[in-house]
Amino acid sequence: MMGRVEPKAGAAAPARAKSGAVASGAPSAAATLLKLEGDLRQVKTRAELAYFLANEPRIITRAQQIAVFRRGLGGRLIVEAVSALTQVDRSAPLIVWFEKLIEGLESGSGLAEPREFDADAFTAPKDSIAGGYPLRYLLWLPLRDIDGTVIGGMLQARATPWSGHDIAIGAHFADAAGLVAMAFQRRRAGFHFHFHLSRRFLIGATALVLVQLFVPVPMSALAPAEVAPRDAFPVTAGIDGVVEDILVLPNAAVVKGQPLLRMSATVLKNRLEIAEREVAVAEARLKKASQLAFVDTRGRHELGLAQAELALKSAERDYARDLFARTEIRAERDGVAMFADKKDLIGRPVATGEKLMEIADPKASEFRIDLPVADAIVLAPDTRIKVFLDAAPMHPFEARLLRADYRARPHDKQGLAFRLVAETTEPTERPFRLGARGTAKVMSGTVPLGFYLFRRPIAALRQWIGY
């Protein structure tokens, strides 16, 4: 261990013996040091200062890696920046080892003076990080306040021993950096305003706040809302198959009986043609059996079989004709065809009964509200709701609750929510645009203001303690 390097009287002769080498290198080192101190004064933020101290001093101290420390919560020194790193992960093993080294150094000899030590000085003998760290020679340079208080420091590491010249230059630069760090620290502290309040005022203010916590306020919660059709008629697939074409545009007005979409009908069309030909063959056999029945007893026996076969083939033909007719789906009533995009449906394999689109009455709409489980409140019949649509945020619409789900359902893959359905209670000049979104304010009874403000922490506390 060593502190600041002081010149010794006995070292004068060796110094004069090497005066030529020192004289040739001193001007460049001094110029570099002065330039670094000038650049240090140009730093604008604490983060810039940490990055500057972690990289620039390597020019004058010939360090291969520098870790910059600052005082954290509780007065503990923590790593703020490391050479060539834009962000420090304080959970990384190397960073944890750096902080343990400084803790050991502080408890052993203190941090107020520059200290040179080995990488194994304050670590366990079998520490894998200390054993695998290639830079064995470490140097601690403190950043001190004007009164000598250590507010941070630089831990410099390299693979060769430290010379007295390097330590002296590093200590000089650390003193200048400490003054800059002190300026940032006091600037941050200057933003705090101190008020000297009397004890009577504090007691009165506390009592006023406590009284206000018991003031009754209406309980409410905010939830996303959407304008949805009321009693929309679902358009479903009549057969198993593939959607071949969509005959209407999204949100287009349709009338009853208008074709909406067409399914692939190649297989069904061929099946219908085969069934019709089989009916024709059965009719010919029945005709032949009828003619034979007049002259031969065997014809009378075959007549019944021919009639049964004709009835069977006719039923198969009617069934094939019905399936073929289902390949074209028509509107069951007037309204608006609601679906997302034609590209999402064309070429899509569907099963019988699968919903493809909806036909809705644009004049009959309702609000669908997804109330998150964390904001669930007591809901009574005809609960008052205010809906703020994104298209008209300054004009809320009054609504009342129609029904609410008793079980929460997944909502937007982010959590669970209760589905509420409400209808507007005020007349509107024109119907709401289906699919419009907004925010609903669901109101309930009155509760104390303190419960309204702290209901979520109270719920979290109850879950934590299990009460």
Indicate the percent of residues in helices. Answer: 25-40%
Q: For the record, give the distance between the C-alpha atoms at the N and C termini, rounded to a whole number.
A: 57 Å
Principal-axis shape equals: elongated
Give the structural class: alpha+beta
Q: Please report the total strand number as a whole number.
A: 20
Largest sheet report: 6 strands, antiparallel, barrel
In the sheet with the most strands, the strands line up as: 6-15-19-17-16-20
Radius of gyration: 43 Å
Mean pLDDT across all amino acids: 82
Ranges where pLDDT stays below 50 over 5 or more residues in a row are: 1-26, 190-195
Count of helix runs? 12
Structural commentary:
The structure is a single chain. The chain has helices at 12-17, 19-40, 46-55, 58-61, 93-108, 128-132, 164-189, 199-212, 266-293, 297-325, 342-345, 449-465, and strands at 65-71, 77-82, 115-118, 137-144, 150-158, 216-229, 233-236, 241-246, 252-254, 259-263, 328-330, 335-338, 349-350, 355-360, 365-372, 384-389, 397-404, 409-411, 415-424, 437-448. The protein is α+β, with helices and mostly antiparallel strands. Strands 6-15-19-17-16-20 form a 6-stranded antiparallel barrel.
How are the SSEs ordered, and which strands pair?
Blueprint: H1 12-17, H2 19-40, H3 46-55, H4 58-61, E1 65-71, E2 77-82, H5 93-108, E3 115-118, H6 128-132, E4 137-144, E5 150-158, H7 164-189, H8 199-212, E6 216-229, E7 233-236, E8 241-246, E9 252-254, E10 259-263, H9 266-293, H10 297-325, E11 328-330, E12 335-338, H11 342-345, E13 349-350, E14 355-360, E15 365-372, E16 384-389, E17 397-404, E18 409-411, E19 415-424, E20 437-448, H12 449-465
Antiparallel strand pairs: 1-2, 1-5, 3-4, 4-5, 6-15, 6-20, 7-14, 8-10, 8-13, 9-12, 10-11, 12-14, 15-19, 16-17, 16-20, 17-19, 18-19
Helix pairs in contact: 2-7, 9-10
